[in-house]
């Protein structure tokens, strides 16, 4: 069955275009929501111009917000939130770098009971989101700039880690000159992640010390 995100995205496409559509013939893994939207619209011979993209992504967040998510413990990977708590205990600063648009990220984090780890001191989330760049590597400088301003300090590249579960996460970290902790919690098998030689690769986030052992 389709995941809630893809289901919501297809419902948004149908709403914007006024007709049912089949799932796009490509993997969403590691793509920004804006990339998914552009590719899908192009595959349907629809010009992905900014007004159409804006309507589509707003509709997507609306449908996602209305989905009946399962209990929070079923919406998160094994080892969470303990791994995030351990990172904070060790003095790490946390922010999001995600392909989700900001509204979609907030819906998903709330469903998983993890949004408090990524607040900027108010109601907004701290980090970089799917609408902030053209591709995943472009999110890294955006996230770092926002973290500099929020935490009031510099983040040298050798102090920065991206935790991700896709090949695109590893490539984004390498392009930006930061390190990647690859975790096989998504659709990409551990051996595929290992082949790209991230700084660290682990099979899961449990026990909670596994992720922090790298840094």
Main attributes?
single chain, 215 residues, mainly alpha, 3-stranded parallel β-sheet, two-stranded parallel ribbon, 9 helices
In short:
It is globular and about 50 Å long.
Commentary on this structure:
With 215 residues, the protein is mainly alpha-helical. It is 44% helix and 7% strand. The longest helix is centred in the first third of the chain and has 17 residues, at 50-66. The radius of gyration is 17 Å and the shape is globular. The model has no long low-confidence stretch (mean pLDDT 92).
Radius of gyration, whole Å: 17 Å
Largest sheet data? 3 strands, parallel
Estimate the global geometry from the Cα principal axes.
Answer: globular
Question: What is the CA-CA span between the terminal residues?
Answer: 37 Å
Number of distinct beta strands? 5
SSE layout and pairing:
Elements: H1 4-17, H2 33-43, H3 50-66, H4 82-89, E1 96-97, H5 102-112, E2 127-128, H6 139-151, E3 161-164, H7 167-176, E4 179-183, H8 190-195, E5 200-202, H9 209-212
Parallel strand pairs: 1-2, 3-4, 4-5
């Amino acid at each position: 069955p389709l995941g809630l995100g893809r289901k919501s995205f297809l419902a948004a496409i149908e709403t914007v275009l006024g007709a049912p559509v089949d799932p796009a013939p490509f993997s969403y893994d590691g793509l920004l929501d804006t990339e998914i939207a552009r590719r899908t619209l192009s595959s349907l011979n629809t010009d992905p111009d900014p007004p159409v993209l804006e309507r589509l992504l707003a509709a997507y967040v609306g449908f996602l917000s209305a989905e009946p998510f399962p209990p929070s413990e079923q919406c998160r990977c094994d080892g969470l939130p303990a791994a995030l708590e351990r990172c904070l205990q060790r003095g790490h600063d946390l922010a999001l770098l995600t392909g989700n648009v900001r509204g979609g990220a907030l819906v998903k984090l709330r469903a998983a009971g993890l949004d408090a780890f990524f607040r900027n001191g108010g109601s907004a989330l701290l980090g970089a989101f799917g609408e902030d760049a053209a591709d995943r590597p472009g999110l890294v400088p955006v996230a770092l700039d926002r973290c500099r301003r929020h935490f009031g300090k510099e983040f040298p590249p050798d102090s920065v880690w991206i935790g991700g579960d896709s090949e695109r996460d590893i490539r984004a970290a390498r392009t930006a000159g930061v390190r990647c902790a690859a975790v096989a919690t998504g659709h990409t098998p551990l051996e595929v992640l290992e082949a790209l030689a991230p700084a660290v690769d682990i099979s899961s986030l449990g026990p909670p010390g596994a992720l922090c052992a790298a840094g």
